[in-house]
Amino acid sequence: VIYFVQIYANTNMRLKLPITCFILEIILIILFGVLVEYDEETDAKKWHHSNHSQYDNDFYYRYPSFQDVHVMIFIGFGFLMTFLQRYGFSSVGFNFLIAAFALQWATLMQGFFHGMHGGKIHVGVESMINADFCTGSVLISFGAVLGKTSPVQLLVMAVFEVTLFAVNEFILLSILGTKDAGGSMTIHTFGAYFGLMVTRVLYRPNLDKSKHKNSSVYHSDLFAMIGTLYLWMFWPSFNSAITAHGDDQHRTALNTYYSLAACTLSTYAMSALTAHDGKLDMVHIQNAALAGGVAAGTAGEMMLTPFGSMIVGFLAGIISVLGYKYLSPILESKLKIQDTCGIHNLHGMPGVMGAIVGAVTASLATIEIYGNGMEEVFPDVADNKRTASYQGAIQAISLAVTLGFALVGGLLVGFIMKLPIFGAPSDASCFEDSIYWEVSSKKLLDTSKLCICPQPKKHCNYTVGKSRGPVDHCEDRRVRKARGD
Amino acid sequence: VIYFVQIYANTNMRLKLPITCFILEIILIILFGVLVEYDEETDAKKWHHSNHSQYDNDFYYRYPSFQDVHVMIFIGFGFLMTFLQRYGFSSVGFNFLIAAFALQWATLMQGFFHGMHGGKIHVGVESMINADFCTGSVLISFGAVLGKTSPVQLLVMAVFEVTLFAVNEFILLSILGTKDAGGSMTIHTFGAYFGLMVTRVLYRPNLDKSKHKNSSVYHSDLFAMIGTLYLWMFWPSFNSAITAHGDDQHRTALNTYYSLAACTLSTYAMSALTAHDGKLDMVHIQNAALAGGVAAGTAGEMMLTPFGSMIVGFLAGIISVLGYKYLSPILESKLKIQDTCGIHNLHGMPGVMGAIVGAVTASLATIEIYGNGMEEVFPDVADNKRTASYQGAIQAISLAVTLGFALVGGLLVGFIMKLPIFGAPSDASCFEDSIYWEVSSKKLLDTSKLCICPQPKKHCNYTVGKSRGPVDHCEDRRVRKARGD
Amino acid sequence: VIYFVQIYANTNMRLKLPITCFILEIILIILFGVLVEYDEETDAKKWHHSNHSQYDNDFYYRYPSFQDVHVMIFIGFGFLMTFLQRYGFSSVGFNFLIAAFALQWATLMQGFFHGMHGGKIHVGVESMINADFCTGSVLISFGAVLGKTSPVQLLVMAVFEVTLFAVNEFILLSILGTKDAGGSMTIHTFGAYFGLMVTRVLYRPNLDKSKHKNSSVYHSDLFAMIGTLYLWMFWPSFNSAITAHGDDQHRTALNTYYSLAACTLSTYAMSALTAHDGKLDMVHIQNAALAGGVAAGTAGEMMLTPFGSMIVGFLAGIISVLGYKYLSPILESKLKIQDTCGIHNLHGMPGVMGAIVGAVTASLATIEIYGNGMEEVFPDVADNKRTASYQGAIQAISLAVTLGFALVGGLLVGFIMKLPIFGAPSDASCFEDSIYWEVSSKKLLDTSKLCICPQPKKHCNYTVGKSRGPVDHCEDRRVRKARGD
Predict the structure, then answer these.
(1) Backbone angles phi, psi at B31, to 5 degrees
(2) B376 pLDDT exceeds 70?
(3) Which residue of C has its CA nearest to B220?
(4) Where is it found, in Gene Ontology cellular component terms (chains A, B, C) (predicted)?
């Protein structure tokens, strides 16, 4: 044991990352062997047992949405975080690792809580989407601690966060009968406040030692825009991926589309208004423009109307930019919450807003508006088991439950992650790929240390590939000048 | 009023961008509130009013295509324009802003002209695709003025161009009964000639002041290839997104696929043939290889056959490269048309070609070839309301109408954009992100000003992170040499 | 003829690339005109001849998967190879050219062997997917010779490889009745061993002349991750694209998803374990994490179970990393196989493993497990034409046949490509874009030759855009020091 602790204390990953990955994956494989089986739509025998159209297979309803969600998880979240100048490998690479682990673990945890059939967990396209959703929550939390945690710490976080996510989701969706198809509460609020608590516990008073690396360079901001745009474009698929078939999926995608469009305009407006000298800030564009998707996560499947969706998106963009500009510095200085990606502004506040919008929209549901569609959106209201107001109250309570789980859970898991055995990087090596990745010195060009040619165009036309002649010429010139020739 | 004019005259965006965005979005929200409602397939009550399979919902026929189109609009157009070395933020960022605005405005304008139901505009997946299409047209025009206009000018352009687009589209599709599913005329020809007129009116005689920034660097060309490839891959979805269900969507995708493949080969051939010293030119590859998609925009849904599609694509690639090589310089020097992205070569000429191919293919339509499928491709011919030749003539007239709308519209809107209140950049600040975006000097590394180590490998092995030792050593060496040691 | 040979001997592409492209494309167009026609689902007349639901059109079953595969071919393979620091244009650009050619040629070759209907080749979404699959095989081979062949050589390779691919595929799928939906054998094993033989024949003993260019820089590794992730995310669509409708497509996607997730964890583990100083190696992450998709290519559609899929993926990741670390250097030093992308580790060994897994899984098939679904997975077993063991044996024989075709084919085609008329680059110009592309010296910044400011922060705060003042100051300082001031 002592030997293991020693291995794990070092920031070197040679043994502890392989050991952690192997143990986790072998446990996963064993549990999958014991617990998981194909559902009725993926099993050759069960599917062919009865007669039906191939289109009855849920694959055709949901697989395109699943692939869009999948892109959001791996490209969207992964590249959104590549904005850091020297942390691109870790951003996209650890995102990849954690997500690949979390989606397997989430399949088990979510299956355990609401997918058991005769002692077996059934899997199919819906479980794949749900697992990706749960993974998204972990990646949101990753955004808060980005640059400050080792991959082993992140895997530990994923183990516990996925578990708590599944419990909270079970309470909301299965016990309380909450509606939250796009996960304003279960995914965004939970992931954000969990991550904020974790980063609070992992507070580093001397993080300014690596402050110069906690910023972007020109091309890293363009890479991040790839992530932003994929999240933005596919958010309609995200929110509609597991809603009921037909009008529900259709309406949810439409609402989210309008919410995001309106959010984008208010984001640009607020960015120019608040940023230095009327210039737009890439941080706002990359993040706040997405808040409209978060805020439409709960109400998106309801009869929110395009009008309502646009108001929601419009306000979400404003709140998010204001958060980046004014709230984040306060959170860091007063509450000691170092939130690298500003997840509080992108997922936290818009998530809470989405939950409130969902509660209000639910409480206004009437049979005049929903008709027979009520059965699919609010089954308990349609069956007269509860009133719309009661449903709205349940939605509000669910927000409180989620916040409770996230904050307490993040606190506990933060302390576990703080144990000095997971190889956390030193303050000076934060935001630095080269402690985890093979990076030749050449690869990480530190542009701040480069010389600029004294007379670029006239005397010293150095061009790559012609190093010999002109360089000598130029050096001669400069040196001759020095010599006083 | 005078105060506002003053605000707007300055290139600083602090007030005029927020004011413009807020006013536009608030108008949009109000109009959506008054005019827009869910259609039969997105409304919970209406959809559940009658009995039908969930698959009857158009969502399942068109949503995957919509998402492909969506990627083309935001990633495709956005990244295609990131080829400029110092204008990547603006390329992808203004593309994002304009598109998010235009799709909302287009929903209203297109709905007003051909989607009204009892005084209300109905929205669903088809309106989303159509709005994205109209947005595409605006982004094509953006390509002509890229680097030379403020975001406020671009929003003003979008307001008017979307309106004129909707009028032209209404005349063609609803009044004349023109077929143009992939928009060779309505989208590409219109967007291109509109944009060319705008850039003609905004002609800058002293644009050579920023000429050195109007070019690419190595990585910016790779970013642009992301845009190119997404446009290329998803063009089959673009052209087939709103054709009739079944064979029509299937055939359109197939035709476009072959047209693009043939176009790619002729593009590479012509690029090597015409470019300097037999080398390929990234400008051609990034753009001309897409001309096959434009040129198959009208005839793609017809019985063009793979053979016909390949001929069309093959010729489109040739024309487009020749345009980049020989016509663009003439347009600039003789006609004073400064076309940053060469939209005349990618959208203008191939769009006209596509319209002509469509007219010819339509005029050759017979019941022997189309059978009962004639009803879906040429309903007026199937119903004996017009002959195929007449349909062909209508297609040709539609091209003329579109060119007229585009040229006159672009002229007028160009003069509006020229008003000195929208903060157009100076000649010297064109193609420069830093006037609109927070860009640290470090971010925009001007590689032309960098020194190259005199003896890179032998004496002066500077590596990042080891600045102390070797640098001193090297400086010593050089300085010692200067001293005559 | 002599004149042509002279043209082709030079590395300059001005004439030989255009001539090759034009001749190939014109031949393609003529053959398409003579041989290709729409199938029942893309032809207006045939489709409307009988009554059916629009959803019966295979377009709706397969088009979303086709687009995912399309992205893998053009973005996935294209960007995966952009890891080379000075070969990004060629990686993504030649990938684009070869793929655009190969998919047309594959349509003819595959159609000739198994798509003829009354003397005509029928095309539709299934032929598009199959053509993309065949193209994928050529791109795998491209990975082995990346950086060392001219585009004309690559087109020559594609002509022959596509032909041999189609023959081998015909023997396996049509004659032997082999199951290989995701192409562990037909695509990966074939493409890999074909490419390895080609690169063996093209062995360059003096390749170390361009060794310094055969590596990545920081941003090129990030571009490569775009390719990796798209391949990873869409692999479930790849393996399921042409399986039977319903449970088969669903199950195949699910199995592949789990195989890839498990593979990712073992890849990270093995990379940290084997790489220098416990650091992760981007080469492993970019490539080995995909081996799980390759290894699930044959058995993915079978009742492999999630448990089995994860074991397969887990082992594939381990084998692949070990291959990169230990086998590739041996292949190069002992067998003279210079495998630029390490396709043996990503496609070769995992492909063989996938074939074996498929043979074993097939031999274990029982009616208890498959029920009536047996008809779709193993029709010959369901019809009692062969036993499951016999099917397994056939699968194993198919692997041997594929290896034979690949090795002999690669050998022959390698010698054809070696003919000194296709403009192969010299040893010193390998891995270098500038011999094929217009690249300004400025574009290819050779970071190894850059100076670093002696006192970056204190005396010499050069920033771009302020070259005048500080530079003079700094130069003065240095020169003054030299003068002994």
Answers:
(1) -65, -40
(2) yes
(3) C443
(4) plasma membrane
CB-CB under 8 Å, C221 with A67: no
Q: Are C419 and C434 in contact (CB under 8 A)?
A: no
Chain C residues whose beta carbon lies within 8 Å of the beta carbon of residue A42: 247, 250-251, 254
pLDDT digits (tens, 9 = 90+) for A348-372: 999 999 999 999 999 999 999 999 9
Q: Which residue of B has its CA nearest to C482?
A: B479
State ipTM. Answer: 0.91
Contact of A92 with A143, CB cutoff 8 Å: no
Distance CA B465, CA C88 (A): 27
Q: What's the pLDDT tens digit per position in A412-442?
A: 999 999 999 898 999 999 999 999 999 875 5
Touching chains, A (3+ CB pairs < 8 A): B, C
Asked if CATH classification 2.10.10.20 holds for the domain at B2-435, the reply, yes or no, is no
Residues A151-207 pLDDT 10s: 999 999 999 999 999 999 999 999 999 999 999 999 999 999 999 999 999 999 999
Any CB–CB contact under 8 A between B74 and chain C? no
pLDDT, mean of residues C388-392: 97
For B37-85, the DSSP string reads: EE-TTT-HHHHTTS---GGGSHHHHHHHHHHHHHHIIIIIHHHHGGGST
Contact C239, C247 (CB under 8 A): no
Q: What is the CA radius of gyration of chain C?
A: 25
**pLDDT tens, position by position, C151-199:** 999 999 999 999 999 999 999 999 999 999 999 999 999 999 999 999 9
Non-local (6+) Cβ contacts of C66 within 8 A are: C125, C128, C129, C132, C241
Touching C: A residues 131-170, CB under 8 Å: 151
Sheet holding A36-38: strands in order across?
A36-38, A120-123, A116-117
What is the rounded distance in angstroms from the CA atom of residue B399 to the CA atom of residue B381?
20
Chain C, residues 312-351, CB within 8 A of chain A, namely 314
Which of A16, A37, A45 is the best substitution to test chain C (most C C-beta atoms within 10 A)? A45
Where are chain B's structural domains?
Answer: 2-435, 451-483
Q: How far is B469 from chain C (nearest CA, A)?
A: 10
Q: Which residues contact A444 (CB under 8 A, 6 or more apart)?
A: A86, A433, A434, B464, B465, C218
Subunits next to B (3 or more Cβ pairs <8 Å) are A, C
Q: For residue A306, give Cα distances in angstroms to A251, B135, C112.
A: 9, 19, 52
Q: What is the DSSP letter of B213?
A: G
Using the Cβ of C61 and the Cβ atoms of chain B, whether some distance falls under 8 Å is answered with: no
Percent of chain B that is helix, strand, coil (3-state, to 5):
75, 5, 25
Q: How far is B450 from chain A (nearest CA, A)?
A: 4
The mean of the pLDDT values for chain B is 90
Question: DSSP E strands: which ranges in B120-169?
Answer: 120-123
Q: Are B420 and B73 in contact (CB under 8 A)?
A: no
Q: In whole angstroms, what is the distance from residue A218 CA to residue B90 CA?
A: 12
Mutate which: B222, B304, B311, B467, vs C, most C CBs within 10 A: B222
Residues of B in contact with A446 (CB under 8 A): 464-465
The distance of B413 to chain C (nearest Cα, Å) reads 35
Question: Which residues of chain C are within 8 Å of residue A97 when distances are taken between CB atoms?
Answer: 264-265, 268
| B143, B432, C306 from B92: Cα distances, Å | 11, 13, 41
Query: Are C280 and C225 within 8 A, CB to CB?
Result: no
| Alpha-helical runs (H) found in C115-189 | 125-145, 151-169
Pairwise CA distance, residues C114 & C110, whole Å: 6
Determine the distance in angstroms separating the CA of A111 from the nearest CA of chain B, rounded to an integer. Answer: 27
Question: Is residue A105 less than 8 Å (CB to CB) from chain C?
Answer: no
